[in-house]
Amino acid sequence: MTDLLDRLKAALADRYTIERALGSGELVEPRATSKEMASCSTEQVCPTLIRRLRNAALVAGLVCVQLSPSEGQEVALGVMVAVNNASQDDRDSRLGFAGGIGVSLAFSHLISVRLEGLATEKGWDESSDMHMHMTYAELPLLLAVGQHGGGLQPFVSIGIAPAFELSCRYVYPAPPLPPDTGIQNVPLGCSSRRDEKVDFGGVFSAGVEVDIGSFRSALEGRYTHGLVDLDSGSEWSKVRNRVASVVLRVMLPLAH
After folding, report:
1. What SS3 state is found at 114?
2. Tens-digit pLDDT profile for residues 31-58
3. Taking a C-beta distance cutoff of 8 angstroms, is the pair 26, 18 a contact?
4. Bigger pLDDT: 14 vs 113
């Protein structure tokens, strides 16, 4: 494909030089007479016909170059699971999980873009009597740089991750009550702790991938840094999601 593109570029350069000479009068284009046109054969082809065929071939070649996939380009679908270590600012972390599907488009052996759809657990967990458990639908969009195919290959990726809250549970110690009530903690509405249900984060990850049969497996360390203050109504504190994850991903290339 590279050699074909180089030849097309050279042909276009030659064509530009000839057409510039024709426009300045330095070169007079031969005109075929009706008699010459009538006498065209495989042994003697008209110059005008040659020029038209050449132009048509150049256009067709350029269209093919534009429409055909580049070397190494592929589309892949896959699934992924992850273990999360999530927290919010100064709160203790909670252990959570994530899982979902993804689609990857590789533009070359080095550059690819991946879109994922995940259900992921975030929040914090200081004790059984005081925690905030949140589940989000997250859509990471990542640009990855790393060699594809062959043996063990390292990669890095950066991207964005919009997230939409699916559920939230906030538990806080109960105020002093008579002993006979038996109440030890109180589930509170999350609105007392956060007023934003849409998050937006920046993502950085690094890992290794390897081809196993028809599948491409990857083990990845990922950090998602929330950029939205979830408790924007508070003047004295900011609540932002922080998630460090270990991701296992299996992709199946569909087309090259």
Report:
1. strand
2. 545 554 455 444 444 555 556 555 555 5
3. no
4. 113
Q: Give the separation between CA 83 and CA 78, rounded to whole angstroms.
A: 17
pLDDT digits (tens, 9 = 90+) for 119-139: 999 999 887 678 889 999 999
* Residues 237 and 90: beta-carbon distance below 8 Å: no
Tokens 């806080």 sit on residue: 172
Does the CA dihedral 84-86-92-94 come out positive or negative?
negative
pTM of the model: 0.67
Task: Name residue, tokens 């998050």.
Answer: 199
Burial class (CB in 10 A: 0-12, 13-18, 19+), 150: exposed
Cβ(96)–Cβ(119) under 8 Å? no
Q: Assess contact for 208 and 153: CB atoms under 8 A.
A: yes
